[in-house]
Amino acid sequence: MSYRIKTKEIVTSAPINKNRWCLLDRDGVLVKDRGHTHKISDLEILPNVTEGLRLLKDAGFRFIVVTNQAGIAKKYYTREDADLFNCELQKRLAKENIFIEAFYVCPHHPHHTGECFCRKPNTGMLEQAQKKFFIKPALSILVGDKDSDIEAGKRWGCKTFRIASGQYPAEIKADYNIKNLLEVANILNR
Ligand SMILES: [Mg+2]
Ligand SMILES: [Zn+2]
């Protein structure tokens, strides 16, 4: 005897108007920027990150990391080192119920591997994420700490937030300057 099982309709948990995305630079935004940060023993989540992401999550945002890792092109560390670091970061945030849904990594540097389309300020990583997750740039935000982050966000067409670390020159004007991630949700709510 055979049974025919009717396939259930799959309903996604997130309503379509909650498909808002927050693209995050990694070093200097989520973790302490030590310059070519790659050792797990150096992984330090910055103050207010967890709380800031939680507020954004409650506001309906989902998270993706877009990070330039030229240290790979320069052979300071390997792609695997970067992936392990990112996994550890993902794990630590998941313990706080914050889920990074994807990491996009540019392993290139123009002097070492030639030009590429992914290294910020190019928009390659943002476009890849856009295609994969059906992201609308105009509904999205990007948080970065360097001109290259802000420029990538502007070219792509999202709102940009710059964490002013004072570590890097700030010649490109972001939509908002902030001290830390906690401010992002507050600005969006006002
Ligand atoms: Mg950075
Ligand atoms: Zn690249």
Notes on the structure:
- This protein is α/β, with parallel strands linked by helices.
- It has a single domain, classed as Rossmann fold, CATH 3.40.50.1000.
- Helices cover 33% and strands 17% of the residues.
- The protein is built from seven helices and six strands.
- The chain has a six-stranded parallel sheet, sandwiched between helices.
- Helix 1 (49-58) packs parallel to helix 7.
- The longest helix is centred in the middle third of the chain and has 16 residues, at 79-94.
- It is globular and about 45 Å long.
- Magnesium ion binds next to loops.
Present as ligands are: magnesium ion, zinc ion
Major sheet: 6 strands, parallel
Name of the top-level CATH class: Alpha Beta
Average pLDDT over all residues: 92
Give the CATH superfamily.
HAD superfamily/HAD-like
Number of helices: 7
Overall shape: globular
The strand order across the widest sheet is 3-2-1-4-5-6
Low-confidence stretches: none
What is the helix/strand order?
EHEHHEHHEHEEH
How many domains is the backbone divided into?
A: 1
Beta strand count: 6
Rg is 18 Å
Structure class: alpha/beta
Cα(first) to Cα(last) distance is 63 Å
Strand content: 15-25%
CATH architecture: 3-Layer(aba) Sandwich
The CATH topology assignment is: Rossmann fold
Work out the helicity level. Answer: 25-40%
